[in-house]
């Protein structure tokens, strides 16, 4: 048995990406952020759809069209494939734990 809130590294100088499950058309990933953002240039432009849920903390996603979505614990959204986006802010004072499900 595993727990999504366990085994969080003490050193979060780098964002942590952990694949929990991977199958032909599906990947489930836990992401732990603490003040991390996407690189200033470029966008995530994925071939898969992404459903993302914030389990703990707060983060912001910015989309190429200028829309900004702030997500807190319990908030989720679906990002269609090739919808360009980036993480523009995560809380620097606490861990933000994301559950991301990529599917085709």
UniProtKB/TrEMBL annotation:
<dbReference type="InterPro" id="IPR014710">
    <property type="entry name" value="RmlC-like_jellyroll"/>
</dbReference>
<protein>
    <submittedName>
        <fullName>Cupin</fullName>
    </submittedName>
</protein>
<dbReference type="Pfam" id="PF07883">
    <property type="entry name" value="Cupin_2"/>
</dbReference>
<dbReference type="InterPro" id="IPR011051">
    <property type="entry name" value="RmlC_Cupin_sf"/>
</dbReference>
<feature type="domain" description="Cupin type-2">
    <location>
        <begin position="34"/>
        <end position="102"/>
    </location>
</feature>
<dbReference type="InterPro" id="IPR013096">
    <property type="entry name" value="Cupin_2"/>
</dbReference>
